[in-house]
TrEMBL record:
It comes from the Bacteria. The chain crosses the membrane at residues 6-21, 119-136, 148-168, 180-204, 210-230, 237-255, 261-278, 285-304, 310-328, 372-393, 399-415, 422-440, 460-480, 492-514, 520-537, 549-568, 574-591, 598-616, 631-651, 663-681, 701-721, 728-749, 761-781, 793-813, 833-852, 859-879, 885-905. InterPro entries: DUF2339_TM, UCP035905_mem. PANTHER family: BLL2549 PROTEIN. Keywords: Membrane, Transmembrane, Transmembrane helix. The keyword Membrane applies. It comes from Rhizobium leucaenae. This is Putative membrane protein. The keyword ATP-binding does not apply.
Amino acid sequence: MTELLLIVIVVVGILILRNYNQRLQRLESRVLELQNALAGQVLAVGVSESATAAEPVQDATQPSENATELLTEAVAEPTMEAEDIAAAARDGVEQTEDVIALAPVREEESLESTIGARWAVWVGGIALALGGIFLVKYSIESGLLSPAVRLVLAAIFGLVLVAAGEIIRRRSEPVLANTFQNAMIPGVLTAAGVVALFGSTYAAHGIYGFIGPAVAFFLLGLISLATLGLSLLHGQALAGLGLLASMITPALVAPTAPNPWTFFGYLVFTWLATIAASRLRRWHIVPSFANALLSIWPLLYIFNSDVVDLAPVTLTMLAMMAGTIFIWPGPYEVAATIEEDIGSAETEELSASSPTSHWATFLARGPLGMTLTASIGSAVVALSLLAYSLLYAYPLPDASLLFAVIVATIAAFGASRVYAAWAAILSALAAGFGMFLALMQPEIGVELNVVQIVPALSRLVVYDSLGLGAVFVIVGFFFLKRFGESEKPFAALWSVLMVATPLAIAVISYVTFGDWTRDWLHGLYGIVLAAVLMALAELQHRRSPEDMILPTNILAAGSFAGLVFALHALAHDAVPTVLLPVLGMAFLLAGRARSWPALPWTMVAALILTLGRIAWQPTIVDPGELGTTPVFNMLLAGYGIPAALAVWAAFEVRHSPDLRLRNALQALASFLALLTIAILVRHAMNGGVLNANVPTLAEQSIYTLLAIGASATLMALDLSASSLVFRYGGMALGVLSIISILTLHLLGLNPFLTGESTGRIPFFNLLLLGYLLPAIAYGGLAAYARGKRPLPYVTMLAVAGAVMAFAWATLSVRRFWQGEYIPFWNGFIQGEVYSYSVVWLLIGIALLWLGARLDARSLRIASAALVFVAVVKVFLIDMANLEGFLRALSFIGLGAVLIGIGLFYQKVLTGRKATE
């Protein structure tokens, strides 16, 4: 009874589908007639099919907008007469498919079409598959049929569904096939049949044991491959189903420890079949799915097998990359794809847009899914080889070699196809991270409890890593040679990878296994790398100086970086510090022959690296080797040579149109010159020892005088050759020096507060160096900056000079009365207190005279402020502390001075009114 019901259902379904198929044929003929009519070739009604097929169909692949409208009307028309479609030819089906493929995008699908034409098909296919399952389940629960009979019926049911799908496909309408390509009835029936066949075969092996693993494996693989073949007729969804069935077959029937060569050979064969079918049908989703599945199996095998052979895993990934490069997507036409997707007009607008859009465009090039799945999958598997080796004591040199081969293949993929930008990026990231794991295993082994290798084998890992870095230079060169002029963003990307990847790997290798005294292997590697990169830069410049300017500059900068690495590998201590600016200067002078913007900027990089080395080792050499001879020691070479070369470089680029370059070199030259003098002073003032101790007032005074002198020098340079660095750098030094006198000269290092000896000589002592000389220097700088710098800055300098002069006079008074040591805890005597008033008033009078003579309002204001301080001091301090004659003399003197000042101002004001 069950079998009869099943047969009836299948027969009725076929009859219903045949009826729909006939209606679809009428629509096909009607649409073809309309297309030919619009093309100027109207087919005569009533002509036989053979006669119609013999006539050529011209311009059928160029439909107009009216053709699309008529096409839509024809598809929407529910009924047609048989005589209206007699002129349709059977061989016109393919031409109609081409017309539909090139037609404009159809209008938004209606709810009725979605429910009736799509959901009904999908749900119907699921219902058929579930119906077969429920039928088998019912027979099992009722005990009607034996297991063998049930399995045979299920297989027959699957074959019937596959046959029904093929019959309907042959009579289906191509127009509807294009419109509802993801909801085609033949494909759904075939998929349901495949599920039934696959399930019955697996049940025969896994549940009932009717067939052995070999037979089950063969049958399941055959069903899967047959499904892939049918997918060429029924679409991409069926291909995905066949692929999934193929990939899970080994998990269903394979023994616990499969032969890895047979296992991965089967997977690669299945993957190749999928890729070949995808190329024929130009599918994107199924091959991406295939790449992901093929990458998952190696991971499961590596970390879930007792004995692992990494060779078949590596060959599997190489096969996937080779198939991706040569089969599908292979030489995929990116430009054609863009035109199909967004139109040629939009492509032209995109090419004229900003550089950011260029980068975003080539990074998003299709087929993006296939590129990412193949690259990510291969990179993850390659990294898993190293991880397995470190965790389970697999020979690391063997694993690192296999890793390098896979990553090099990914890089070759990125260099051979213009749509594979992510392959290039991911290969570089995988190379850097993987070689970091392999090369740093001695350091991370203890912390992570991973297996370490002996030093002799580590040398092999070093060779593998350096060789992998060289591969990136080679494949990058081929990319630049082939696509450099047409793919500018990609060419710039490959230039960066050609520089960054080998250098990053070499640095990791050198830090881990290199000889920090002198390492010839890494040093020569850096020299050869630099020479090759510079040769490639020159080659690109000669081929296309305009189009390849960015890659050329990147390669030139990479050549400098390679030499910097070689310099550190072959020398140590003071030699790299001294030779880094020499190397940068050589590249800067090379700019006379080649006007590449990167060449002078290498000097900036060299000076910054030099400052970094100085910060790391301020003594340039080992502190015990420095010596105590003032000036003439390694500090002079380590600081002085870079400073001199920086000044030379700033002079060389003084006419450069690059303002940022000029400013950078001028700033570095100024800083290094000041740093050189300061460090030599520090060394000489501390007995030939450089340490972090707080400087004395004498040492700090030298620094302050240096800052003032440098500020004046930068001002003079700015006046001779206008420069923002000189202008604002000089003003910044003036401000910093004033901050130092406020915090150190007057407070932190003041001998009145610290009790430091001021020296035994009355005038030529610490107070002269710490206060009077800076006061004179500030006064001279203020006079020089007057009219050349903003008034607030000039006023600040003048006030600073006045403050320092006031401090010198006041502290000199105290030293006169107290002697060599003048700390505040020694107290005050009456003569000293009175002397302060006299000196302050004299200074006030002197400032007033200078202010009137120079017509400097700032000096007159300073005079008034100082006189006011003297008045306050007389009334508050002298009155309370002085006695007898000194108290009276203090007030008499103050009164006389104030009256004199008043007369002076009256005379000045009267003279001005008379002049007016």
